[in-house]
Design a protein that fits this description.
CATH class of chain B: Alpha Beta
Strand content of chain A: 5-15%
Distance between the termini of chain A: 48 Å
Number of strands of chain B: 3
Order of helices and strands of chain A: EHEHEHEHEHHEHEEEHEHEH
Largest interface: A-B, 25 and 29 residues
Structural class of chain B: alpha+beta
Number of domains of chain B: 1
CATH architecture of chain B: Alpha-Beta Complex
Strand content of chain B: 5-15%
Radius of gyration of chain A: 19 Å
Helix content of chain B: 55-70%
Distance between the termini of chain B: 37 Å
Shape of chain A: globular
CATH topology of the largest domain in chain A: Oxidized Rhodanese, domain 1
Oligomer: heterodimer
Radius of gyration of chain B: 16 Å
Number of strands of chain A: 11
CATH architecture of the largest domain in chain A: 3-Layer(aba) Sandwich
Number of helices of chain A: 10
Largest sheet of chain B: 3 strands, antiparallel
């Protein structure tokens, strides 16, 4: 029997602006059979779900399921609605995201779902790793949920998604930009594999004026759960001067790590104007005449 | 092979990898990393004496299910076919994606092709070492040359060869 760790159950006492968006492993365990709760696994590792997942969980893959297959964009309303109905999601369903990589893709999926205005969204604090470390069940049986009846509205990118022209305006006006990549990427010392151009960038460095706050700083390493609000405030506000009323754009390489920081700023600290630039460095680092700062 | 069977095959290769481990008296040990996903593969290659042909390969690695399964599948294929260096270098990334299954691998091409990129790097290393020896360099000199080349490559984003593990896991 592998050694397991005790559940973390202190979300309500961590001082978050919107504590309801985070659920504990125990909450998920208590709702495995709840027909009004749909658990969604979203991973970097394309086959991790198939090796075992939370009982009843469905899989949503960020590439195959959430992206338009042709244009670099997300899917439209009709396809998104079809996807959700196929996963057994209805209007009243509470959706709980979890995944690998400290919930990168869980928060990414959460962010994409928010573009369509969905509200009953949660993230499993600590993600897949926490669930596994607590010795909880992972099963390979793929669930068959009845077709859902959700009605989805058109996608609205305005409030939480930033495009390159918005980023350029931020640079010119000196507004807040946060680069959540590793310090090596921020300094332009490391780009990506030249043999794989789909995620490569021709230039290294960062967007002028961006603060370097790697995404992982929001996580308590020992438990993989989010840090308490007081520690998050120290990192984002005291150390880096962000204020809850600021107009903030976050970015990384393709928008997955920055969706994690978007989530922390928006829901845990209560920032009201945070947008995720999903074009991120794979767009900016290839954009002709885009200003770059290095180091 | 249908999708379900293919997934089971990939998961099996991940959980029971073939040819995993070091290779005694390998002619090349080459690491490769995928910074996007944190995958690392180190490929060991033993060449046939006096021939431009692979005798055996093995690998070590950490990373996502697909990257490790692809390495196992590629190692199994390479040990079965013992291809020439030319054949390894001609085996394309597209063919690798087809080998592990385009329906799954096309969404994660870096993970699916990392092992192949690293194997190609190992073949090129053996070829280069042989040329350097023919030119009269000793093994010690070759090691020094490789160190110098690796130092020059720092900062370029290259992740096949020296420093790949550090790059991928940073």
């Amino acid at each position: 029997m592998p050694e397991t760790v005790a559940p973390v159950a202190d979300i309500a006492s961590r001082g978050y602006a919107h504590p309801e968006v985070l659920v504990s492993t125990q909450w998920v365990a208590d709702h495995l059979a709840d027909p009004d709760v749909r658990i969604v696994e979203s991973d970097e590792d394309v086959l991790l779900y198939e090796t075992g997942h939370i009982p009843g969980a469905v899989k949503i893959d960020w590439v195959v399921d959430l992206n338009d297959p042709l244009v670099r964009d997300y899917l439209g309303r009709e396809r998104f609605q079809r996807l959700l109905r196929a996963k057994g999601i209805s209007d009243g369903t509470t959706i709980v995201f979890y995944g690998d990589k400290n919930n990168w893709w869980a928060t990414y999926a959460f962010w994409v779902f928010r573009l369509f205005g969905l509200k009953n969204l949660r993230v499993l604090d600590g993600g897949r790793l926490r669930w596994a470390e607590e010795g909880r069940d992972l099963v390979t049986a793929v669930p068959r949920h009845p077709e859902g009846k959700i009605t989805v509205r058109d996608r609205d990118d305005a409030k939480t998604r930033a495009f390159r022209e918005h980023v350029l305006e931020h640079v010119k006006s000196g507004k807040r930009l946060v680069d959540v990549r590793s310090p090596e990427e921020y300094r332009g010392e490391r780009m990506h594999m030249p043999e794989y151009p789909n995620e490569g960038a021709l230039r290294g460095g960062h967007i002028p004026g961006a603060r370097s706050i790697p995404w992982g700083r929001a996580i308590t390493q020992e438990t993989h759960t989010f840090r308490p609000a007081s520690e998050l405030r120290t990192i984002y506000q005291e150390e880096n001067g962000l204020r809850p009323q600021d107009d903030v754009i976050v970015y990384c390489r393709i928008g997955e790590r920055s969706s994690h920081t978007w989530f922390a700023l928006t829901y845990l600290l209560g920032f009201e104007h945070v947008r995720n630039y999903d074009g991120s460095w794979t767009e900016w680092g290839n954009l002709v005449q885009a200003p770059v700062e290095k180091p | 092979m249908d999708r379900e069977t293919r997934i089971a095959w990939l998961v099996d290769h991940n959980q029971r990898p073939r040819h995993r481990g070091t290779l005694a008296d390998a002619d090349a040990r080459v690491p490769g990393g995928n910074p996007g996903c944190g995958d690392v593969i180190t490929m060991y290659l033993k060449a046939k004496e006096g021939e431009n042909r692979v005798a055996a390969v093995s690998f070590e690695g950490v990373g996502c299910t697909l990257s490790q399964a692809a390495a196992s599948i590629l190692a199994e294929r390479t040990n079965r076919l013992t291809p020439t260096f030319e054949e390894v270098l001609a085996f394309s990334y597209e063919e690798m994606v087809d080998l592990v299954g385009r329906d799954i691998a096309s969404s994660r091409p870096q993970c699916a092709t990392l092992a192949l990129g690293t194997l190609k790097g190992a073949v090129k290393t053996v070829e280069m070492n042989r040329k350097l020896r023919l030119a009269g360099h000793t093994d010690e000199q070759i090691a020094e040359l490789r160190g110098a080349i690796a130092a020059q490559a720092e900062g370029t984003g290259l992740v096949i060869g020296e420093g790949a593990e550090r790059a991928a896991l940073a």
